[in-house]
């Protein structure tokens, strides 16, 4: 049976690949490619964040009896990422791949740190606290 850690870590890798595609296009001044790549990345990231915020985090908080632990930090970091998404989209909409590249570096660092915390701490804690990961993964996999 797949664990929460495996399931959500695979999503991280998928989003990382989409992000790299958008970065590559922007570095080549391929504005259309960067816009399309970033849109795909942002769509997948928003779906991933929603799975965590609407399914995983509430289940984890209920199981542990705490909403002030790691999930509150993850929610704050999700908001920081969303702010960067908006700034990056605005830069691409303004045909400004230079600003996009700078924001992209900031987002990359934030995502690397965030993903490491989730993959090495939160997800394993959720696997232990929630036991039957299949039902949580099923809920996260269901179309909205």
Could you walk me through the main structural features you see in this protein, from its secondary elements to its overall organization?
It is a single chain. With 144 residues, the protein is an all-alpha fold. Helix content is 87%, strand content 0%. The protein has helices at 4-27, 31-64, 70-93, 97-130, 133-141. Helix 1 packs antiparallel against helix 2 (31-64) and helix 3 (70-93) packs antiparallel against helix 4. It starts with a helix and ends with a helix.
Structure characteristics:
5 helices, single chain, Four Helix Bundle (Hemerythrin (Met), subunit A), 144 residues, mainly alpha, 0% strand
The top level CATH class name? Mainly Alpha
Q: β content, as a range?
A: under 5%
CATH superfamily: nmb1532 protein domain like
If you compute it from the alpha carbons, what radius of gyration comes out, rounded to the nearest whole angstrom? 16 Å
Number of domains: 1
At CATH level 2, the architecture is Up-down Bundle
CATH topology: Four Helix Bundle (Hemerythrin (Met), subunit A)
The helix/strand series, from N terminus to C terminus, equals HHHHH
- How many beta-strand elements? 0
Q: What is the averaged pLDDT score?
A: 94
Give the proportion of residues in helices: over 70%
> Biggest sheet: strands, sense, closure?
none
Choose one word for the global shape.
elongated
What's the tally of helices?
Answer: 5
- Give the oligomeric state: single chain
Structural class: mainly alpha
| N-end to C-end Cα span | 23 Å
Query: Ranges with pLDDT <50 over ≥5 residues?
Result: none
């Amino acid at each position: 049976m797949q664990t929460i850690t495996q399931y959500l870590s695979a999503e991280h890798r998928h989003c990382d690949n989409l992000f790299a595609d958008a970065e590559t296009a922007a570095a080549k001044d391929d504005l259309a490619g960067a816009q399309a790549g970033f849109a795909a990345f942002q769509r997948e990231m928003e779906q991933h964040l929603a799975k965590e915020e609407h399914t995983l985090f509430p289940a984890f908080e209920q199981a542990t009896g705490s909403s002030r632990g790691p999930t509150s930090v993850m929610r704050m970091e999700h908001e920081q990422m969303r702010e960067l998404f908006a700034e990056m989209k605005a830069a691409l909409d303004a045909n400004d791949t230079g600003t996009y590249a700078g924001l992209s570096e900031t987002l990359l660092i934030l995502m690397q740190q965030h993903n490491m915390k989730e993959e090495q701490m939160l997800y394993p804690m959720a696997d232990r606290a929630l036991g039957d990961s299949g039902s949580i993964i099923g809920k996260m996999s269901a179309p909205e």
